[in-house]
Amino acid sequence: RGGQVRALASTGEQRNPEAPEIPTMIDAGVPDFVSVSFTGLAAPAGVPPDIIARLNAAANQSLDSPEVRAVLAKLAVEPKAGSPADFAAFLAKEREKWGAVAKAAKIRIE
Fold first, then answer.
1. pLDDT 10s per residue in the chain (110 long)?
2. Which site from 9, 27, 61, 109 is most exposed, i.e. has the minimal number of CB atoms within 10 Å?
3. DSSP string covering 45-87, please?
4. Secondary structure letter of residue 27 according to DSSP
């Protein structure tokens, strides 16, 4: 906004509400290009389902807080509340996508 740097595109699925003038990579003509950073909560295996449900409810409730949303918006973070199954599905999709990229680039763990 100060004119010192010009953003060419963002890598999310949709334009960022804090900077709607910046196109996404998809808008810029790179089909299916989505790369996002994320933060999530995880618990050790074997944690009772009722505890997981309580933790999930508390996390989702905090993401609904206007104060938390305001802080996250200043950081250009788009909160996504959801269930443990939602997060597991997201992680599986990311693992599949980036696993294919690593395989195509012949990247391997040593």
1. 788 999 999 999 999 887 899 999 999 999 889 998 899 999 999 999 999 999 999 999 999 999 999 999 888 788 999 999 999 999 999 999 999 999 999 998 88
2. 109
3. TT--HHHHHHHHHHHHHHHT-HHHHHHHHHTT-------HHHH
4. T
Q: Which residue has the tokens 């599949």?
A: 96
Tally of residues, the chain: 110
Residue 10: Cβ within 10 Å count: 21
Residue 100 tokens, joined: 């294919």
Round to whole Å and give the CA distance between 104 and 49.
38
Tokens 């950073």 sit on residue? 37
The contacts of residue 30 (CB under 8 Å, 6+ apart) are: 9
Q: How far is CA 98 from CA 24, 55, 75, in A?
A: 19, 29, 25
Here the tokens at position 52 are: 């997981």
pLDDT at 74: 85
Contact present, 69 and 63 (Cβ < 8 Å)? yes
